[in-house]
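Mods, move this if it's the wrong board.
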Amino acid sequence: MIAQKNRLKKADFELIFRNGNKSYNPYCNMRYIANKLDYCRFAIIVSNKISKKATVRNKIRRRLKAVLQENLPNFRQNYDIIITVLPTMAKLDFAENREILLNLLKKNRLLV
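Not the wrong board. Structure tokens:
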């Protein structure tokens, strides 16, 4: 589980959606913005459009959080990141989810 200090609060979402940088791929969208803290914060959005079943949505969320937790020391400092999952990601297994997320983060130079 990601530590409480590394989780975004709902109050921060509006700022990131309005002013943040955007990056897209066929499986997920990412918005990010620099913050004034000494650590990164994350949020993962998995909507009802992905699946009507909460277990499926939570499974996707847990997989992505595991990848973020595993790579937490490799992140560049001072970023708030929101990852929005698209329906195509629900069909992939953990290894593919991991590869897609890491490629998206590296493409935007958020990982060292």
